[in-house]
Every structure is written in structure tokens, then in C-alpha cells.
Write a structure and sequence with these properties.
mainly alpha; Cytochrome Bc1 Complex, Chain D, domain 2; two-stranded antiparallel sheet; 4 strands
Amino acid sequence: MSKSPNILLPALGVTGIVLGGAYGTMTRSYKADEADIARAQAQAAEARLVSQEEANTDLKSQIALVQDTAKAKIAELEARPATVSLTAPAPMHDGAMGLGREALVEEIAAWDVDVLPDGRGLPAGTGNAFDGEELFADKCAACHGDFAEGVDNWPVLAGGFDTLADEDPVKTVGSYWPHLSTVYDYVYRSMPFGEAGTLTPDETYAIVAYILYSNDLIDDEFELTHVNLGAFEMPNKNGFIIDDRPKAEYAAWSAEPCMSNCKDEVTVTMRSVFLVNTPEDGGSESVMNNATVEGLPSFTSAGASFIPEAEAKVEETVEVAAAAVEEPADEGAALIKAGEKVFKKCKACHAVGDGAKNKSGPQLNALLGRTMGSVDGFKYSNVFKAAYDEGRIWDEASLTEFLAKPKSYMKGTKMSFSGLKKEGDQVAIIAYLNSFLGD
């Protein structure tokens, strides 16, 4: 048994030699593969470098070409004579620009809303003062007052007929404007304030008709249309002249100025503050327009006057009012309620009820039975002062006639309200006023 290891030793030695040879062979094969990969990567990198150098060369050629072209263009512009002026008008373009499209007829019509004095350009439509009164109260009265008398510093639209020769004339639509087309055009384009362009043609005709009615130029049933508006003559139409300054004065202005025999010295002798008699506080008293239609031309159409004389209906109105007093209590209350609604036309200037005070018109408590022009603290017009001196009393007959046509009944009154045309409104408001018997 002691000889066994010696027998195995030769076998182990052969095995080790075989294994060592195999390992050496494998190692040499792996290193050969790594060398092939490295050589392939180096060849690819060299190819990319060659390609990049070619691209750079091409780019440099392009840059050089652009630079040469720019230098040539600059040289050409510098050699060109300076014939272009920066202030010269743009050259005319022959032919269409190729932009946009032809405007439709409807699109042009939507913008073409200007109106000429003879009525050309007016859209088809119609309106009267009866309908215009409600529209005016809703859309215009906040600035111009219920009767176009103006609110605060907003423009007055009615009255002022006898003031154009005054130092401070009241220039209203009735007293000053020469053409009615201007009224329509302005209202249609620019009103109501903050809602310009929202009125329809019919609404505009109605509002213009109410402005005419407030100036006593038409009655409340007159229909103003695109047919007769251009023919309507305003009272102050002939108060304007054609501007002839280009013919009469421009030649004198264009002459050479005089530069000889001048004054040796020019001094300020007075300042404008002493030339203009302006109240220091700007004036604190404000009164309504003293409007009148006396002497105004009446515009007629088909034989019907636009300023008809008010018909006398006093006896008939008194009978209606007397019948109203005899009506049952519930009908009387309904009449007073109707009168309260009518009084909305008056409350801008007059007050009734507890604590009523004078406004631009006197308070109206206990009106029936009191002397005309007798309210303490109110500054009446001369015609009411005369009525007070005569001892004239307000009764149902006189009040009815006054309400129907204030300026006709009391010529010279400062009240610009044109009157209540409906007999039912007159009866209702008298019943309403008669319900306020004390202060």
C-alpha cells in the first residue's frame, strides 16, 4: 500500500500539462478579439474625423461665398446715386395687392350711416312724440331731463328761442340747430350715453320727434319719417352763413407781413380777468330757460300746421272732473293712482306731500284755491308776479287750461313743459294734486 502515491504521480503530471496548454490557448484567442475590436474603433474614428473635416471645408466655402455676395451688394449700393428721399410719398402700386376681398353691400351699409341735410342717407323708419316720450324718459332723461330741460351740466335740448342775442345764449336743438338731419345723425350714432349705436331707426325717429315736441315744433301725433325729416325747416336755419373765408380772406392772410414802422415798445396794459365780468363764485343762481314760440315760423305739410293752436276744452274738462268727484271711492282712488303716474312727468321740478319744498318749480300742496305766484321763497317769472298782483286763483278750469298748454295760457312762463295733451291725464293729475290739501 505504500507504493500507491508513486503510481498516481505520472498521471497527475500529464493532466496538469494538458490543462495548462488549454488555458494558454484560450488566453491568446481572447486577446486577439480585443485587438480586432480596438482596430475597428480606431478606423471608425478616423473615418468620422475625415468626414467632419470635409464638412468644415464645405461650410467655410459657403461662408466665404455669402461674404463675397454681401460685399458686392454693399459696393453696388454705395455706388448708386442718392435719389431716394425719406420724406417722399410712398410709390404708387400698380394693380391689386392681393389682400382681403371685396366688401359686401351689407357691410358697407352698416358703416355708411351719415345723413345729409336734405334727408339723403336716412334709413327707412317712422316715429312720433307719443312713443318717443317713453323712450326719452328711459334712455335720455337721466342726462337731459324728462322735458329736455337738462340735468346739472348736461345739455339743454329745449327752449332758449329768445336768448340767442343775449350774452349767454341758450343754444338748444330748437333755438339754434339749423338742420334736423344733424339731430337724427348724432342721436343714432352716439346716443344713449354709454350705449351708442343700440337705437333702431324707428326709436331714433321717435326720440327726435319728442325733442321737436318739447320745443313746441310739432304735436304729439305727428309722424316723423325718412320722407319728411329732410323737408322739416328748423327755426334757426337762416341764422348761419356759408364759410367764405377761403375766398374773402385767405388772400390777405397769404400776403407778406409788414415788417416796418413797428412800435418801439409793447406793454401789457390790462389782463383778461379785469375785462370779463365773471362772478367770483361762478354764479350760484340757476333758472330754467325762458322759452317762447312767439314769432317762430310754423312749418306746414299738406295744409296741417306742426304748431296747432290748443283747442278750448275747459267746460268739457270741468264736467269730466266734476263727474270724477262724484264717482265711488274705489274709482276715485283709481283716478288718484293714475294721476300719481302722470305726476312722474312733473316731479323733476315740483314736489308734493309732507315736507314738500320748492325745487326748480314751486311745491304744489293745496294748489287748488290758492293765489297764483304766492308760494313763499320761490322766484316766479314776471307773468306769475302779474297774476299774483291781479289776485288770480287756481281753480280746476284754469289749472286744466294751464296743464294743456302752459306757454299758451301763461305767456312768458319759465316752465319749459309743453303740456298734457290727453284729457284723461289732465283729469287724473288734478285729482292727484287735490289729494294734497296742506303743507
